[in-house]
TrEMBL record:
Residues 133-162 are annotated as: Disordered. Belongs to the universal ribosomal protein uL3 family. Part of the 50S ribosomal subunit. Forms a cluster with proteins L14 and L19. It comes from Chlorobaculum parvum. One of the primary rRNA binding proteins, it binds directly near the 3'-end of the 23S rRNA, where it nucleates assembly of the 50S subunit. This is Large ribosomal subunit protein uL3. Keywords: Ribonucleoprotein, Ribosomal protein, RNA-binding, rRNA-binding. One of its GO terms (cellular component) is cytosolic large ribosomal subunit. The gene is rplC. PROSITE patterns: RIBOSOMAL_L3. Pfam families: Ribosomal_L3. It comes from the Bacteria.
């Protein structure tokens, strides 16, 4: 079991014993620090609040800077909570969590924010088929079609799939295999793709399935 915060470095490929190419993602996993220890007695649940990265104190609010100061650390770029059950042993505020919490062959879930695609139509956003390509239609090829009857129901139902902003949402990719762990470089290589563009922040936790 393990949990850590990191940054997506990019994608590459590795080869297995059968000389098959495996698409892999390289993640800079930590080192993270424990910004706060939450307990059931005080907060209602048990968790570690992990911080990752380092930035100027002048670029964060004073309450947040004071929160980091209690742990004796500089403000980080990412702050997220993980269950105490995911990390072995008892940690105190200011303790370090490194990439060696994971081992090769372990299965993990990776949480991140997907790439923002901007405003997109229904064909790209919802895989609509578009209109007919015949009978002289020139402007209905990628249109959504009818979204609600004029007389009945005389409205567009809430939740109707339409054009809009695409991407930029929280997403979890489950059951990714850790192919390689390089603790000296704070790097973890997982098989497959993870959410987000290069240099985006992710959270890696041991899978529950």
């Amino acid at each position: 079991m393990g949990a850590i915060l990191g940054k997506k470095v990019g994608m590459t490929r590795l080869y297995n014993d059968k000389r098959e190419a495996l698409p892999c993602t390289v993640i800079q996993a930590g080192p993270c620090f424990v910004a706060q220890v939450k307990s059931a007695e005080k907060d209602g649940y048990d968790a570690y609040q992990l911080g990752f990265g380092e930035r100027d104190e002048k670029k964060v609010t004073k309450p947040l800077a004071g929160h980091y100061k209690k742990a004796g650390k500089a403000p980080g770029y990412m702050l997220s909570e993980v269950s105490k059950n995911l990390i072995a042993g008892e940690l105190e505020a200011g303790a370090t969590v490194a990439a060696d919490v994971f081992s090769e062959g372990e299965m993990v879930d990776v949480l991140g924010v997907t790439k923002g695609k901007g405003f997109a139509g229904v064909v790209k956003r919802h895989n609509f088929g578009g209109g007919f390509r015949t009978h002289g239609q020139s402007d209905r090829l990628r249109a959504p079609g009818s979204v609600g009857g004029a007389s009945d129901p005389s409205k567009v139902f809430k939740g109707t799939k339409m054009a809009g902003r695409m991407g930029g949402t929280n997403k979890t990719v489950k059951n990714l295999e850790i192919v390689k762990v390089m603790p000296e470089s704070n790097l973890i290589v997982v098989k497959g793709a993870v959410p987000g563009p290069k240099n985006s922040y992710v959270k890696i936790v041991s899978t529950t399935k």
